Amino acid sequence: MNKQEKNSQDHSLVEQAIREYLLWMIDRGYSRRAWSLAERLLGYFSAFISRQALCWEHIFTVETLAAFQQECRLWHTGKAVRGLARYLYRQGKISRPLTKQPDALPDIYEDYLRYYTKTRQAGPTKTPGVRRLLIALHDFLTKEKVALAAVRIEHLDTVLAEHTAGLQPGTCQTRRSWLRGFLRYLYLVRGLLAKDLARLVVGAPQYAQAKPPKFLRPQELRQLFSACEPRTARELRTHAMLHLAYSLGLRPKEISLIRLDDLSFLTAEISLPDRKCQNPIKLPVPETAIKAVAAYIIGGRPKTTSRALFLELRAPYHPLSPGTISHDIQTLMRTVGLSASAYWLRHTYAQNLLEAKASIFEIKEMMGHDRIQTTRRYLHIHTRLMREVLFDENL
């Protein structure tokens, strides 16, 4: 078989793969608009492959996708081709999926990004920001010919000044927090730094951040739960998430990671192995929360092989993102007249622990905090208990 015949055969394989992928999309319940757009864009991709006379091994590569996007210049071209590549990867027809390639960094930076993602439960929206900060630090040290082990606070101040120029104070504070996390990793985990430089990375005080967390009062809780009469699949799902957020103080990210295997209806317990800050825990689940979760599984959860507890309601039934969980709970609150967010339920859980006379160390474990300083913030949310402790008042 000559090269021309080989390219023609490989192009036929691409066209067949596109047809099978589109049929898969239709079978999985994708909307007509979604698969029609994919059909049009992948048609352009097929024509591009034919003109370039590419063999199968060179079709699903970052370089080919970049060249196609440069020529096509249409929205969603990359998404359509990557979707096809994921499908072929699952079918075992290509060796790896086609993913966006981030800027490469030395191994120690990449190791930290993996460590950060795992220990901080960092989602796809936060990790790129941390990567950009580390790239700025690496580029500066390379330019100044300074080894990472020899970095000084003057270098860090310069990098932060350049990286945060023109940003709002709150954003600058976040960037400093990211840098402190990396420095603590270098000092405590890798032993690369002789001293903890994280303590020296400080900024102007942000007094607005000293406000205590907000929580729901008893009458607001009664208002919220008495208005919940779930009927639809979405309402059943939101109702179950609401109970878990309130009765266990779970973060939206933690709710999104719950799997069916983490629940024990027999013992009324839930395991959280992938908790933020690597603090796994097993918690008892109140009867009301168990019933809400069971009602969702029976009447609202899609029938699928996925083991994630909370799923999207449309195919292909991906696990819910933390943002969707926060939005759904907040929307429910707004419908009953409460101007609150999902995190208010977590703060309310902390208040309930205070009223139950739990110690600050017990609250730290139940809340999944990595530092006692974070837990101390929750001591400010209960005015009555503060007055009892500070002034010995019997209210």
Please tag this protein with its features.
mainly alpha; DNA polymerase, domain 1; hpI Integrase, Chain A; 3 domains; three-stranded antiparallel sheet; 3 strands; 3% strand
Total of helices? 17
CATH class of the largest domain: Mainly Alpha
Q: How many domains? A: 3
CATH homologous superfamily identity of the largest domain: Intergrase catalytic core
- The whole-number mean of residue pLDDT values reads 83
Gross morphology: flat
Helix content, binned percent: 55-70%
Q: Provide the succession of SSEs.
A: HHHHHHHHHHHEEEHHHHHH
- N/C terminus separation: 91 Å
CATH architecture of the largest domain: Orthogonal Bundle
How do the strands of the widest beta sheet line up side by side?
1-2-3
Overall SS class:
mainly alpha
Report the portion of residues in β strands. under 5%
Radius of gyration, CA atoms, in whole angstroms: 26 Å
**How many runs of DSSP E, i.e. beta strands?**
3
Low-confidence runs of at least 5 consecutive residues: none
Query: Major sheet: size, sense and barrel closure?
Result: 3 strands, antiparallel
Do you know the CATH topology of the largest domain? hpI Integrase, Chain A
